[in-house]
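Quarterly update from the structural biology core.
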Amino acid sequence: FGSSAGPAARRAHGPPPRMPVPRCLAMGAPELTWKDAAGRSSGPDGYKFGDVLRVLWDRVTGGHNVREAAERQAAAGSAVDADDCALLDLKAQRDQLVGHRRRVERMAARDAEVAASCVQNGQKERAMLALRKKRQHQQLVLDCEAHVMKVEELIHSVEMARVQRDTVEALATGVATLKRIQREIGGVDYVQQLVDEHADSSEAMREITEALAGAGVAADDAEALAELARLEE
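Predicted structure, tokenized:
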């Protein structure tokens, strides 16, 4: 007999437990959600029908969605600005083009096999049709390669621009720090003033030293001079 528990009884036990992403598909990110693993832009974070097929297909065609999701999961908490999002979008577009090119290449190879089989079976018209499809697929492969090259160039330009921006920001920070230190020093006039004050202080100390060296000259100098003369005799 089947269970007599209705929807209300099932709701009383709470929602069904969340099915985690298997380790073999998580790419080293234990807290990876099904939404990130499948590369979905909408829907719940938990499992949705078709997510396994999406993940497996992505793994077969390159595995970039799962890998990038794992990287994002590992870098959780770090600030992601609009430039990072734009660069990730460009890389995702490149990966999609590469996957499409691979699929078209396989289709062209299959067309060549079909054409050869038709020739052996004496089906000339079907062989010509397969060869035409092969040429179309080969042209699509060339178009995909051109698009991938353009996207790669754009990604390289964006990355170089970000490096230049970081360099300029570092230079600006260094210049601001140098100016602040110079303001703290007080400028050339203040330094010259310190040098002059140091010279005056040194001169005053020299005079004080000479004064101390000549101290003790009193009224009995005549007796001391007379005694010194007797000693010299």
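DSSP finds nine helices and no strands in the chain.
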